[in-house]
Amino acid sequence: MLSSVEPDPNDECGYTARLNPEQLAWLEADLAKNTLPTVVVSHIPIVSVTAMMRGKGNARGEKSEIDGGLLHLDSNAVHALFRTNGRVKLVLSGHMHLVDRCEADGVTYACSGAISGGWWKASKTYCDPCYGLVDLMSDGSFTLAVKPTGWTNA
User: Fold this and answer.
1) SS3 sequence, 6-55?
2) Counting C-beta atoms within 10 Å of the first and last residue's C-beta, which end of the chain has fewer, N or C?
3) Are 105 and 88 contacting, i.e. CB atoms less than 8 angstroms apart?
4) Residue 62: pLDDT over 70
C-alpha cells in the first residue's frame, strides 16, 4: 500500500502524486526481498488511461498535459521498478472515479470506478457507483471484476 499524495503548495490541487524518496527506498527494498507475486495499491494511479480524460489537455495537434494530481509524476520510474522486479502483477488505484485497465510489461494497472460514482450526482464523466472484486491465485494470476452497487446517483 502506497501513500502517493504529496503536499505541493504550487499545484492548484495543493498536492501532486509521487513517492517521496523514503517511500521509494522502502518500496525498492520490500520488492527486492519479496519472492511472491505482488499487488501494489496506490490511491492516485501510477499508470492510467483515464488521466487523459481528466487533464487540461490542449486541442488536437498540440501538447497534452496531465495534472500531477491525476497521475504519478514518477510513473516511468515506478513502472521501471515493477518491470525490473518482475513480481508485481497487479497495481490497483482509485481517484479517477472511472473504470480503467491497462497492461504494460506484464503489469496490469486497474481502477475499478468508485463506490461514490460521481460524488452522488449524475454525471457523464464519472462511472455509476461500483467496486472491484479481486481474486488472487498463488501463481500470480488474478481475476478482477467490476461490480455495480445497485445504488443510483441522486
Assistant:
1) EECCCCCCCEEECCCHHHHHHHHHHHHHCCCCEEEEECCCCCCCCHHHHC
2) C
3) no
4) no
The answer to whether residues 111 and 95 touch, using CB atoms and an 8 Å cutoff, is yes
* Residue pLDDT, tens place only, 96-146: 888 999 999 999 999 988 877 666 566 666 788 889 999 999 999 999 999
d(CA 47, CA 110): 9
All 3 cell numbers of residue 44?
Answer: 492516485
Check residue 104 and report its DSSP letter.
Answer: E
Element (H, E) at 90: strand 88-93
CA dist., res. 108 & res. 13, Å (int): 27
CA distance 54 to 40: 23
Domain ranges of the chain: 5-113
User: Topology of domain 5-113, per CATH?
Assistant: Transcription Regulator spoIIAA (3.30.750)
Q: What is the pTM of this model?
A: 0.88
User: In the structure grid, which three cell numbers stand for residue 83, read together?
Assistant: 518491470
